[in-house]
Amino acid sequence: MKLSDIILTTDELHLLITINAITEFDKENPGNIPFGGIHEIVVSNGIMKADEFDKNANSLMDCGLIDEDYFINEDGKRYISVFLNELDKKIEDNNATCEISCNKIDLNVLLEKIKETAENINWNEVRDDLAKWTGIVASLVKIMQGVGLL
């Protein structure tokens, strides 16, 4: 599936960003994923309820952005990168043509969900990953300011 064919919802993008942070943390700190994997981390930290996780993860899997173990793959990483670049383009030119559609994404809600996630995660366990989360939040704040949402 081409990235231009993928239209994620706010919840799906939030989960993809969360999975990306967990995946990156695991690469740098192997062996910290508990039994139950990413599902367990997301649900036990109150980021999403189990049924919400299942629904959104299945959608991300169907789009080819995560694998069967819920780890982000190269297409998922590329989607996040393209998403952030597209929003930067929109700041500079609101009529810019974008590769992916953000029609189903509410940036205010996404930012709030990322903020809540940052509050719910045990940062003592993932403090090395704080820079990644901070970068994502900073990018979203910049974007929201640029389009007049903040």
Structure explained in plain terms:
The chain is mainly alpha-helical. The protein is built from seven helices and no strands.
Radius of gyration: 15 Å
Gross geometry:
globular
Number of continuous helical runs: 7
Approximate helicity band: 55-70%
Strand content: under 5%
Q: How many β strands by DSSP?
A: 0
Order of helices and strands: HHHHHHH
Please outline the major beta sheet. none
Residue-averaged pLDDT, rounded?
77
Contiguous runs where pLDDT drops below 50 for at least 5 residues? none
Q: Please identify the structural class as seen in this structure.
A: mainly alpha
- How far apart, in Å, are the first and last alpha carbons? 34 Å
Question: How would you sum up this structure in a few lines?
Answer:
With 150 residues, this protein is mostly helical. The chain contains 7 helices and no strands.
Secondary structure: elements and pairs:
Elements: H1 10-28, H2 37-44, H3 50-62, H4 74-92, H5 107-120, H6 123-126, H7 130-146
